Amino acid sequence: MNLLTLNCHSWQEENTLPKLTELAQTIAERSYDVVALQEVSKSDKAGHANYAELLVQKLHDLGEMGYTFIWDMSHFGYEIYEEGVAIITKHPVKSHDSFFITDQYDMDNWKTRKIVQAVIDINGEPASFFSCHLGWWQDEEEPAKKQLDRLLARAASKELTFLMGDFNGDAAVRNENYDYLLAAGFWDTYTLASEKDEGYTVKGTIDGWDGNKKDLRIDYIFVNKPIEVISSKVIFNGIHKPVVSDHFGVEVVIR
User: Fold this and answer.
1) Which positions ≥6 away from 119 have C-beta within 8 Å?
2) Given Cys at both, which of 23, 29, 33, 228 links 255, Cβ 3.0 to 4.6 Å?
3) How would you class 110 by CB atoms within 10 Å of its CB: exposed for 0-12, middle for 13-18, buried for 19 or more?
4) What mean pLDDT do residues 185-191 have?
């Protein structure tokens, strides 16, 4: 099983359409079973269609007719974008849902967060996937711990479960987002992987990490069981495929 997570930055990127084409071509080439995307936006005011919908249309144009998408809005970004999270898959979706993980439901507040969940039939077996975009541990208004508690309550399942996305918590920082998920019983597929690279998905300053000068690992694919992971690699970093976003992606191959 091949998985990809990417904070795609969508319409906030320069040259969005060529980058969307690169992403679609890579999904087709790598034949990802499930793709989790964050900062997936559309804007009626700017005349921008839903990024996830365009991506799936591009996949269909490439002959990959099996791909479908699920998307829901989290909040308005930059006043004009309806920004949310999405799951794209080429397998049958048995059920799907979305839910708030923040105290507030105010769509005009950029800190409002939603999660999209899908139960997907992978070769006859159900598995649950969550596309996640979390806040920051130290945020006094919307602390990540509360958000993680709500996510974990929904993700409590005996079936194979993956939490995929931008968790806004660096793996190198102790006793915050990353350690909290490990303590809750989830495994980082990066550490499980037999083959891996440096793992960094953010280099320098991006939105939400102003003044950052470190290499960060804040995008993850977590799993609720210690499965066999063949590889975990950063993608769209200018080395392994061109850069398409202010985040790099993470691709994981599971036996």
Assistant:
1) 93, 94, 95, 96, 126, 127, 128, 129, 159
2) 228
3) middle
4) 98
Q: What is the Cα–Cα distance from 125 to 119, expressed in whole angstroms?
A: 10
User: Is the confidence at residue 191, as pLDDT, over 90?
Assistant: yes
With CA atoms as reference, report the closest residue to 220 among 112, 134, 119. Answer: 134
The overall average pLDDT reported for the chain is 95
For residue 29, the surrounding DSSP H or E stretch is helix 16-30
In 59-122, where do the E strands start and end? 68-77, 81-89, 93-100, 114-122
Q: Write out the residue range of the structural domain in which residue 76 sits.
A: 2-254
Q: Counting every residue, how long is the chain?
A: 255
Q: Which helix (H) or strand (E) holds 23?
A: helix 16-30
In this prediction, residue 206 has a pLDDT band, given cuts at 50, 70 and 90, of low
Total number of domains constituting the chain: 1
- pLDDT exceeds cutoff 90 at 126: yes
Supply the CATH number for residue 116's domain: 3.60.10.10
Q: How far apart are CA 54 and CA 57, in angstroms?
A: 5
Mean pLDDT to the nearest integer, 194-214: 81
80-101: buried (b, 16+ CB within 10 Å) or exposed (e) per residue?
ebbbbbbbbbbbeeeeeebeeb
| Nearest residue to 177 (alpha-carbon basis) of 204, 157, 148, 202 | 148
Pairing of strands 2-7, 249-254: antiparallel
Q: Which sign does the torsion angle of CA 96, 97, 101, 105 carry?
A: positive
DSSP 8-state code for residue 10: G
Q: Parallel, antiparallel, or unpaired for β 219-223 and 81-89? A: unpaired
Amino acid identity at 110: W
Q: Is a pLDDT exceeding 80 seen at residue 141?
A: yes
* pTM exceeds 0.90, yes or no: yes
